[in-house]
């Protein structure tokens, strides 16, 4: 029995919650996965997994063994990278997840520079705003705007994105153009609901060193950035969003900036990954590339 391969299979079963999913993820026959786990349990002399008709979950011994396996496999990957060409030429699959707007408008257009530099890394990219369980779903790294909610993850700051207040021309024609914050009393907003936390977001303005929240009446609330923009373009009220996501609409005239003289707080953009992945050379080179990308002029993250 290849014990390291057995550990790899075991960790994937725990993370994905099933033998079939682990086999598909590792591109192995399902029978081979079952045999490896049986051999591993016999070798260790303990039951690692509880199997029911609907779910596979680790036993108490299995949970403890999983934590050790994760650390050992990460250490093995880093050790091999130190003494092989993988340090300069990392290889393998890198699974990442990011909001669709950041992916479409910032990261994917710039990806050819990354893939040309690291041709042996295969990228699997998920584009959505939903919460992602990195361990269970086998995701190596996520990009998220705003504050990191999961303190168990390592957060690498990438940028402080400029934001602005927006409305559709049709809405402003109907409701009037506000020239000061006090004018917002007769306006309405589109509410953004975080799919990760359920938190509801109104408007915020930076007044000196203070952030002033303003909640206006609403008729529509959405939980995705694309829906947020669509509701604004449809005339349902004011929104606040990162500049990069609004550039196309501003150029086309489907949205216009409101209260340009009143600052909106910046939004943090971070790369998040599990602690055991911080030694992965694939994750490391990708996050380093993201840091350089976000510092590059012209990305749209900054207005200047």
From TrEMBL:
Per its UniProt record, what Pfam families does this chain match?
HTH_1, LysR_substrate
- Keyword set, alphabetical order: DNA-binding, Transcription, Transcription regulation
Task: Please tell me whether the keyword DNA-binding is annotated for this protein.
Answer: yes
Q: Which CDD domains does the UniProt entry name for this protein?
A: PBP2_CrgA_like_3
Gene Ontology annotations of biological process type: DNA-templated transcription
**Alphabetized Gene3D superfamilies for the sequence:** 3.40.190.290, Winged helix-like DNA-binding domain superfamily/Winged helix DNA-binding domain (1.10.10.10)
Domain of life, per lineage: Bacteria
Q: Where are the coiled-coil regions?
A: none
All copies of domain HTH lysR-type, residue ranges: 1-59
GO MF annotation list = DNA-binding transcription factor activity; sequence-specific DNA binding
Q: Which family does it belong to?
A: Belongs to the LysR transcriptional regulatory family.
| Protein name in UniProt | LysR family transcriptional regulator
Originating organism: Pseudomonas nabeulensis
């Amino acid at each position: 029995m290849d014990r390291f391969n057995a550990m790899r299979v075991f960790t994937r079963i725990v993370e994905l919650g099933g033998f079939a999913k682990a086999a598909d993820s590792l591109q192995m026959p399902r029978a081979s996965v079952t045999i490896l786990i049986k051999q591993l349990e016999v070798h260790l002399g303990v039951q690692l997994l509880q199997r029911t008709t609907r779910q596979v979950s680790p036993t108490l011994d299995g949970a403890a063994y999983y934590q050790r396996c994760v650390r050992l496999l990460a250490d093995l990957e880093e050790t091999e990278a130190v003494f092989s060409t993988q340090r300069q030429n990392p290889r393998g699959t890198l699974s990442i997840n990011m909001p669709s707007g950041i992916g479409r408008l910032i990261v994917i257009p710039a990806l050819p520079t990354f893939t040309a530099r690291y041709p042996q890394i295969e990228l699997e990219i998920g584009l959505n705003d939903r919460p992602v369980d990195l361990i269970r779903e086998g995701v190596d790294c996520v990009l998220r705007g705003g504050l990191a909610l999961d303190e168990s993850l390592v957060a690498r700051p990438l940028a402080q994105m400029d934001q602005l207040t927006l409305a559709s021309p049709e809405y402003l024609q109907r409701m009037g153009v506000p020239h000061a914050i006090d004018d917002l009393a007769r306006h309405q907003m589109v509410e953004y609901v975080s799919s990760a936390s359920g938190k509801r977001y109104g408007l915020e303005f930076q007044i000196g060193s203070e952030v002033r929240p303003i909640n206006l009446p609403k008729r529509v609330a959405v939980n995705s950035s694309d829906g947020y923009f669509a509701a604004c373009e449809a005339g349902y009220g004011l929104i606040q969003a990162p500049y990069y996501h609004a550039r196309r609409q501003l150029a086309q005239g489907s949205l216009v900036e409101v209260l340009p003289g009143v600052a909106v707080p910046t939004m943090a953009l971070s790369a998040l990954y599990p602690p055991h992945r911080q030694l992965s050379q694939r994750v490391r080179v990708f996050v380093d590339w993201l840091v350089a990308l976000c510092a590059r002029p012209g990305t749209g993250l900054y207005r200047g």
